[in-house]
Amino acid sequence: MATSHAFAGNPLKSCLNPDSLIPFLLDSSSPDRFLILPLRKGRPLARTDDSNPPRWELAWVDSTRLDRLEARGDEFVYLGSTDLAEEARQCHYWSVDVSEGTREWGEGLAFIELRTLMVATDWADANSMGQLAIAGHARALLEWHGLTKFCGSCGSKMIPISAGRRKQCTHDSCKKRFYPRVDPVVIMLVIDKENDRALLSRQSRFVPRMWSCLAGFIEPGESLEEAVRRETFEETGIEVGEVIYHSSQPWPVGSNSMPCQLMVGFFGYAKSLDIHVDKKELEDAQWHSREDVKKAITFAEYEKAQISTAVKVGQACKGVEQGPHSFSFNDYALESGEMAPMFIPGPFAIAHHLISTWVNQGVPGSGQNEKSLKRMNSVSSL
């Protein structure tokens, strides 16, 4: 069973002074090992094994082959380090953007969309989940670097420092430091306790029959709980009283202008029930009974979608399938072959765990005991 959300649980640990590693990265004089993950337009380089279904893994490039990367020393971004088993040395992991390069990377390798790798990941496999977290971290840092080439204060050029984990303005009278951008988002399952229902919504960009939790960005000067209440009221007209924290999830697969969102999940108890949908924000919002939502979770074949997407990744790495290497939500079908009347996002999304926690375990608070609270904070798995 996975112990964290997709993109969380990164197994790498930070070095106290990563800048000190850069000379060794470039000249290979250190006894430590250095591995680099190339990304092209936000897509990490990956390979798959011969298992059925195939299992993907990140395709690291050893520092002894830096000539293949066509990159300068200041373009490498430090991701973290691990101790090598039974060896008195470490392995240091880096990433670099090779979007401008034209080099072929070899047979059995392909740059795969991070969302596709997310769906193709076996969420019960801790090693695969760890690799997904590393890939998400790398994409978030490199996308941030691409967006922060010039100082937001004086307009001068910026340079990476701290092995790419910070940037600094080059103008002598400025020298401001900038840190990687994280955009916090509240995502909430609003509950009608008296009638045992949950409020689910649809956006126009959703595929047909897909419903999910409400969500929205936090505004300056408000708390997380205030953001839950404001967003719910603005989008649906529902007033929320008690707000209960569930968990959080990094989300590095949002738009390119927001390299990494942090999804902060909550339950909220409704104080009013009449829905007034803001059509500028949502296509629809409705109350759904626990039984209907449970059916949507039970019949949607999330494992089937994971396996079929893993096969697509394997085909892409073998050169069989070209294009964006994306998955289809149509893989979420009933066992009879008919399309599900409604479904919710898969186990890779925090929305799934908010909804399945409510369906299967109930929600702590309002008199429920501490044992339920501890259960809720663990990631549910189907």
Automatic annotation (TrEMBL):
Pfam families found in the cross-reference section: NUDIX, NUDIX-like, Zn_ribbon_NUD
Cellular component aspect of the GO annotation: cytosol; peroxisome
InterPro entries: NAD-cap_RNA_hydrolase_NudC, NADH_PPase-like_N, NudC-like_C, Nudix_hydrolase, NUDIX_hydrolase-like_dom_sf, NUDIX_hydrolase_CS, NUDIX_hydrolase_dom, Znr_NADH_PPase
Record key words, sorted: Hydrolase, Magnesium, Metal-binding, NAD
Annotated EC: 3.6.1.22
Stretches assigned to the Nudix hydrolase domain: 180-313
GO MF term (any one): NADH pyrophosphatase activity
Family affiliation: Belongs to the Nudix hydrolase family. NudC subfamily.
Protein name: NAD(+) diphosphatase
Protein species of origin: Rhynchospora pubera
